[in-house]
Amino acid sequence: MSRTSNRRGQSVLRIIGGQWRGRKLGFTPAEGLRPTTDRVRETLFNWLAPDIHGARCLDLFAGSGALGLEALSRGAAHCDFVDNSAQVIRQLYEHLQVLDAVSRARLVQANALEFLRRPEKPWDIVFIDPPFGLGLAAPCCEHLQQPGMLSDNALVYVETATGEAPPQVPPRWQCHREKVAGGVAYRLYIVSAG
Predict the structure, then answer these.
(1) In this structure, what DSSP letter does residue 121 have?
(2) Torsions phi, psi of 140, nearest 5?
(3) Whole-angstrom Cα distance, residue 42 to residue 47?
(4) Is residue 5 part of a domain?
(5) What is the DSSP string of 112-162?
(6) Is residue 14 part of a domain?
(7) Which mean pLDDT values do the consecutive 10-residue runs of the chain (194 residues) have?
């Protein structure tokens, strides 16, 4: 797993690939925060390898920033990090400073669903990793189908608990890959143009 603890009671996130491979970043653990494991991230970013370079990304429910930071490390041009916790946003800003990547990111403290109601530049890759058991994945997917939210053939990653039903997704979304690891089910959708 990517999450270990250090002496100060912080958890540690390790970036597993790209320009910051092996870098360790501390973050304060919080209830419900479960960074995507190394194993799942490795599989996901193998799936994304042909598309990640130069991509414009969105990391909803950013938490530790594991997915967005990994995307930037592997060549994404930009990532918007969205989380409703001021502490999370502060920590992510500190990480981006350490990595000299502030100019490649935007940090937004907001409720994910409210954030998705605002017009934005289209994203190429979206990471949806909400707290489990609250039914948040499906409404996020629903908001993302609005015109102009996603680029043509965008990729949307959705992580849920294995006990949860797969989220209802818009008709233009095709499940490209899916896998289960431990208590996590994860899927990558391709959003067809039109």
Answers:
(1) P
(2) -65, -45
(3) 9
(4) no
(5) HHHHTTS--PPEEEEEE-PPTTS--HHHHHHHHTSTTSEEEEEEEEEEEET
(6) no
(7) 46 91 82 72 95 97 94 98 94 95 97 90 95 91 92 95 88 94 93 76
29 lies in some domain: no
Q: Is 154 exposed, middle or buried (0-12, 13-18, 19+ CB in 10 A)?
A: buried
Instruction: Report how many domains make up the chain.
Output: 1
Predicted TM-score (pTM) of the model is 0.91
Token pair 């797969």: residue:
166
The answer to the question of residue 26 being in a domain is: no
Quickly tell me which residue has 């409210």 as its tokens. Answer: 114
What is the extent of the structural domain holding 56? 34-191
Say if strands 24-27 and 105-109 run parallel, antiparallel, or are unpaired.
unpaired
Extract the tokens encoding 65: 């920033």
Query: CATH number for the domain including 84?
Result: 3.40.50.150
